[in-house]
């Protein structure tokens, strides 16, 4: 068996996005916490509730009940209402470490979310292809909910 030598390109993942939300920093931050937590869902709208403990070291996990589940990460940094940073394997059950950052900045007319997901380690082709779609869907829900609450 011959294995391809790992390269920086196939051992890293870098997804970035920016979203303008017509809501306050506080409303936008709370929308993030809700939509990556208990209100999380898949891109097709299927409920995918998660638990986010929004404090340093807090867990981010999928609770399947009866002490079953999947740990996605831990809160690395939280500075309400401008920063939420999580590290862990996320949805990847193989040797990979991720860092997810939501940085919020007050701008005219609302809040700018600067999103970044970086990962190092093995990332399957399926995950590599689907990760942008998943994050875009979550960011769109965060934006809609924060905008709605601002009205």
Describe this entry's structure for a reader.
The protein is of the alpha+beta class. The protein has a single domain (13-39, 72-150), classed as Alpha-D-Glucose-1,6-Bisphosphate, Chain A, domain 4. The protein has helices spanning 8-11, 25-35, 125-150, and strands spanning 12-21, 51-52, 59-65, 68-79, 83-88, 96-107, 110-121. Strands 1-7-6-5-4-3-2 form a 7-stranded antiparallel β-sheet. Helix 2 packs across helix 3.
Going by CATH, the architecture would be: 2-Layer Sandwich
Give the DSSP E fraction (strand runs of 2 or more residues). 35-45%
- CATH class (first level) name: Alpha Beta
First-residue to last-residue Cα separation: 60 Å
Give the helix/strand class.
alpha+beta
Query: Would you identify the regions where 5 or more consecutive residues have pLDDT less than 50?
Result: none
User: Could you tell me the mean pLDDT?
Assistant: 92
Described by strand count, sense and barrel closure, the largest sheet is:
7 strands, antiparallel
Give the name of the CATH superfamily.
START domain
Radius of gyration: 16 Å
Pattern of helices and strands: HEHEEEEEEH
Helix content: 25-40%
Largest sheet strand order = 1-7-6-5-4-3-2
CATH topology: Alpha-D-Glucose-1,6-Bisphosphate, Chain A, domain 4
Oligomer: single chain
Number of helices: 3
- Total domain modules: 1
Please tell me what the overall shape is. Answer: globular
Tally of DSSP β-strands:
7
